[in-house]
Amino acid sequence: MSAFDRPRFLRVFVAVFFVFLFAPIALVILFSFNSSRSLQQFDGFSMRWYETFFESESLRDSLIASIEIALVTMLIATVLGTMLAYGLVRARTRWSDTANVLMLVPLVTPEIVAGASALLLFTQVGLELSLTTIIVAHITFSISYVTVVVRARLAALGRQVEDASMDLGATRWQTFRLVTLPALWPAIIAAGLLCFALSFDDFVLSFFTTGESPQPLPVRIWTEIRFGVRPTINAIGSFMLVISILSIGLALLLPRLLGRRESGLKVLLGREAA
Amino acid sequence: MNENRFATAFLVPGGLWLLVLFVVPVCLVLALSFGYTDDLGEAIYSTRLDNYERLVDPDYLPVLFRSVGFALAAVVLCLLIGYPVAYYIAVFGGRWKNVLIALVVLPFFVNYLIRTYAWIAMLGDDGLVNGVLDSSIRFINTPWAVIGGLVYGFLAFMILPIYAALDRMDPALIEAGKDLYGSPWETFRHVTWPHTFQGVLAGSVLVFLPAVGDFVAASLLGGPEEVMVGNLIQQQFQASDNWPFGAALTIAMMAFLLIWMSLYLRAAARETKEARA
Amino acid sequence: MLSRRRLLQGGAGLALGAGLAGCGVGNIDKGSKAETEKPIRKRIDGDLVYFNYSQYIDPELVKGFEKLYGVRVRESYFDSMSAMMAKLRAGIHYDVIFPSAEYVQRLRAGFLIRRIDRDKLKNVDTVYPHYDDPWYDPNSEHSTPYGMYATGLGYRADKVTGMTGSWRDLGEADSDDRSFLLDDYQEAIGMANLVNGHPLNETDTDKLEESKNYLVDLKPKLRGVSADTITNMVSGNAYIQHLWNGDIVNIRYGVDNPEDFKFQKCREGMPIGSDNFVIPVNAEHPGTALLFIEYMLEPENAAQNVEWIGYPMPYEGAATEAFQGLVKDDPEINITIEDLEQGLQYENLRGEGRLAWDEVWTEFKVS
Hints:
Order of helices and strands of chain B: HEEHHHHHHHHHHH
Largest interface: A-B, 113 and 107 residues
Mean pLDDT of chain B: 85
CATH topology of the largest domain in chain C: D-Maltodextrin-Binding Protein, domain 2
Number of strands of chain B: 2
Order of helices and strands of chain C: HHEHEHEHEHEHHEHEHEEHHHHH
Radius of gyration of chain C: 22 Å
Largest sheet of chain B: 2 strands, antiparallel
Number of domains of chain C: 2
Strand content of chain C: 5-15%
Number of domains of chain B: 1
Low-confidence stretches of chain C: none
Structural class of chain C: alpha/beta
Helix content of chain B: over 70%
CATH architecture of the largest domain in chain C: 3-Layer(aba) Sandwich
CATH class of chain B: Mainly Alpha
Strand content of chain B: under 5%
Shape of chain B: globular
Shape of chain C: globular
Oligomer: heterotrimer
Helix content of chain C: 40-55%
Mean pLDDT of chain C: 88
Number of strands of chain C: 9
CATH superfamily of the largest domain in chain C: Periplasmic binding protein-like II
Number of helices of chain B: 12
Number of helices of chain C: 15
CATH architecture of chain B: Orthogonal Bundle
Distance between the termini of chain C: 37 Å
Strand order of the largest sheet of chain B: 1-2
């Protein structure tokens, strides 16, 4: 029989996959509640590390900074990246090749250099480092990720539906808005999530482009973790997970919140036109 | 043509942003690679070729090959693991699709470093796994640990594009394929795979390129032999305080990777043309 | 298209380089001698902008300072001297930073740090006389020492046999193949120099070649080259680790059997270093910074800090006693005055020497 009718092997595979995926996460969460400092032995339940985390004004500032940065980066990078993807796939100009390479070079650049070069740029221009400079740097390096993801979907879409829509009298803009965009939704959401995760997690780029304070959370974790993982770090990690669950939940619910009559999920899947 | 202008206009915002905020810094890095450091350790721009002369040394080749090798291994493993998972969720996920894909992405929201250190705690010589198995298997500080670290760090980059591509596929196509080709493998080869190729390509690029320049996995999980290009570069910028040499290393690495990039572009362009036809 | 683009970029790069030739990457207004000599008035003139290694000060003390003077301490962290310099050169206005000894010398030479009038600071007389006129800062006019550290070999007394008191133990002692070299080019090359009987800061190419060979031969016997000293030992991945004495203290805090973790001072020589308070020339609140230094010099504060960070601070009295108390059962971890006097210190290597070390290290890594 075909694998389609009895996906047992696949099911087991995916189950094992999830176990491995979440094993270290489970560890992090578990030990964030450890009453002692040990990372080998669980000595009892305690919220003390979370208390340490929340009581620290500077850690709270860092957390809020990270969220702000990730949100703004996600929004702007997704827009810019999606537009770029559309242009790269649909446009035929002599700039296409250049744009293509331009879009890929950030992926080729190691983060350290990305950070150092951004620092060089800001320094030469005399720009003062702040949250804004971090956001600018993050966006610059997120655009490529968005473009690659969205473009894959767009290329597979083919132009038949778009052509049909225009034959029926829709303008190019209408076609884009009502036909292309909804079909791209899963890719855009996926790209957006990727951006958020990348930005929320980034420490190298952030270190170079951050002002004096607050440093984003991953930078704090990076500078600190070399001196031994303290349970507070596990508490921070677990908390970041909670934030992420909330944001993903929000992303999934968003179309519904925006008042579409159809199920938000269906729109996400591109099964229905908006 | 009007249609072309419409699409071309879309290139402008992103393109301009990248031009100003990326190309210019890269040019600065390029300029820096011709520089030197003064006695105070500050990098000074100049027009010297010293750094590049240093690079023309066959001793650097193993590091490059190793980096590419690890990155390729990571891509292959990500594909072998990620494709089935994406397939399962897209085709069999049903109502749970979104929850499942969210679960896939969720761990990637926990800081990469924290996750890696959690692995070290789990797989360390005195760690959990060895404790449970009552053994003393050395997991950490091996090449496979580095590859594992890379795979774990970049898996989402492979799964998401493939999922997005699979999800677009009409299941009726698979049904039709089954009827046409009979075996699941043939159906996969002739129907599913071509439709998801762009997604696979995207995922591979998003895993491969950053993996080559990664330094965290090798430094935390590797042994003394597991030095990657990213580690060399990091060392110049963060320890040796020799930014010009680091810049030269980077330019060399980027030039090398551009070759792989052009392969990707050609493959992507080919698919697009076929899709257009 | 690809090659044309690269050519264009290359041309642009060269042009930019030629245009910028002679310019440094930094943005910080290098002070003149006059700027740096201007005395600082000891008073609160705003929040403290603090830039240091992470986990290197007791957070309770920071809170204490905030409460005492009613200011905020805005903390940010770096993980290497290079990183610190990069941010400093970018022009960020820190009030107090913590360079190591050679970097103090560099900062002084670049007129980047201000004079600290020691006689204005209470308790400054507790600072070890060794630091009254250090090589990197004559008359100690621009810096005050913060923490001291010594490099040696940390090892599991319960697992390792064959420790002979020498640096060679790193490769020779039986550690069940769990030996780690410290991923720090200074420390590694310095150690190799010492093992071969040369001065710590040797820059002669032939002798450096010997050191490089020593390191390359050491490689197969190592499990890793790592700066994650604490994690390595706590997780049991390392039985011998090249590290700093304070690391052992911190490792002991994190395990159930601290008495098994020991520190070996190696007879070929023990490098000693210090991290120091300095006030950058572009600090916006130097007065607060001065008060902060004074606050940390208070004996009870220093003692409390020592216990938290696990490193000794070079102040007589409570601070010294506190560290002695921490390392009662393994006094090798302590840094005595004799150690200081004999202690080898890393110098600022100039031009060729520095490049030579850099090359040795890169070649070692790549081999």
